[in-house]
Amino acid sequence: VFIDLGWGQGIYSAGKQMGRQWTLVAFGWKSSDDGLLNKRVEMWDKMKKWLQEGGSIPDDPVLCADLTGVEYRVGENGANMGKVYLESKEMMRNRGLASPNKGDALALTFAFPVKSRGARVMDRLRNFAQPYDVLKGNFEFNAVKWNPFAANLN
After folding, report:
1. 78 alpha carbon, distance to own chain's centre
2. What DSSP designation does 68 have?
3. pLDDT tens per residue across span 71-119
4. Could you tell me the sign of the dihedral formed by the alpha carbons of 51, 57, 60, 63, in that order?
5. Which of 16, 22, 62, 128 is most exposed by smallest CB count within 10 Å?
6. Hey, what long-range contacts does 27-32 have (CB within 8 A, 24 or more apart)?
7. Which residues, 6+ apart, have CB-to-CB distance to 2 below 8 Å?
8. Contact between 123 and 115 (Cβ < 8 Å)
């Protein structure tokens, strides 16, 4: 579970007390994509691509308004030159729009790659299934293939 560092610290603390392993995410963190200004636009970009590839969301008018209300811009000077960013919530308020809370919540699900529980279990099983060579004492597999029809049977 990814939680907004700006507003979710109380929820994070409660989850930690319950033994949950949740991750705080700051929307202002540096993006892993040099063409994007920060983590917020990176998450929204991944969400947009997921939706374009057939991702499904509920028929929720508030979520729909959130996803279509935010505008992107390209930095025109300084360190932001050429970087894509999303308009601030203050800019949205000036245009008469509410903060895109549901849109940001959905975007948070794209903060970092996540494997399904089944994929994580399979990864662990693959790690345990490595062949073991008793003579070498390591995890390399050095089986010799014997061909009884080969010309040289030494």
Report:
1. 28
2. H
3. 999 999 888 899 999 999 999 999 999 999 999 999 999 999 887 878 8
4. negative
5. 128
6. 27/104
7. 22, 23, 24, 25, 108, 109, 111, 112
8. yes
